[in-house]
Amino acid sequence: MNLLQDHQPLLKLLINAQFTVIDADLLPLVHSIPFNPGVPTLLVGRNAEKLDSVIKQVRKIYPSTTLVNVQTTSNEIIEVELEKISLRQVIGVLIPELTKGSSMEEFVEIIANLRDPDTGCPWDKEQTFSTLRKHLLEESFEALDAIDQQDTAKMEEEFGDILLMIAMYSQIGQENGSFNIYTVLHRIAQKMIRRHPHIFGTTAVDGVNDVLTNWQKIKEQERKDNGEIEKGVLDGLPRSMPALSQGLELQARAAKVGFDWPNITGVLEKISEEIREIEASETVDEIEGELGDLLFVLVNYARWKNIDPEVALHRTNSKFRARFKYIEQQLRLKKMKFEDVGLAELDALWNEAKARSS
What we know:
Blueprint: H1 2-5, H2 8-11, E1 20-23, E2 41-44, H3 48-61, E3 67-72, E4 77-81, E5 90-95, H4 104-114, H5 122-126, H6 133-148, H7 152-175, H8 181-194, H9 197-200, H10 208-225, H11 243-256, H12 264-280, H13 284-304, H14 309-333, H15 343-357
Parallel strand pairs: 1-2
Antiparallel strand pairs: 2-5, 3-4, 3-5
């Protein structure tokens, strides 16, 4: 009560409003805003360093021109822009809500509302773990497209769609009593703390390799603590992972325990061998099997060259898409369709497209 009594001048501005009170003196130095930006927040404290720690994070999220009310040690209330706050002789800052709908709590409420058995959305109420799977995959691929295009506005949108999927899954989990958004958050938070003892504990590391080695040891210990049967080198890799990426990871894991070619010459010889076996194949089943073998050894070659085959193929797909689109555009300009031209003319347009993109 003394804490609130000391800040009556600021509290008068919050009559009939939902708000949060944060005592900076009780916090460690923070790396993100420690409150819900969807409601006004009364930030108080006598420790200028800790107050400044919070305000620095607020400035990363809120517009610099956001008007805040500052309470000085003489109980004077001053309205200033966020970027102009000087925390000397300041004991309280009233920070307005960022925007409606900008907090996890509000978002969780929206999803719960959509799933309400009586008043919810018919489509959202019908969703299950299984029916949402295709949407989770689609949203993930759309987010990857946005990343590849370095389109930050699109990233913001697509990451929101992925968060929607997580919130929907968590709401379904809450309804059937298996888990909820808060247990999901708790589990991943504890995992990050546990697997980063060099940040949250006293373990010393010397570079990335030490971090990865410790990470693997901690994972193995977690499995033992959970009573899990000791897993093989290749266990735990998702079978639904894209085939090229899965092949790359399978080979990388095998190589870590010494199951690998001594040099890249063996890989190149294997590529030639697989091509010959494709040429000798007769049935569809044989061709499919040999083609898979060829793709697998091509992935191995990419690993030896430190190339992600998924990225390489994606790059070629994008190149093909752009060149084919150029052919379509040229045909439209000539008021022609594909069936109106022969392969030789299409090939000439393809070469034009190649020359333009080279």
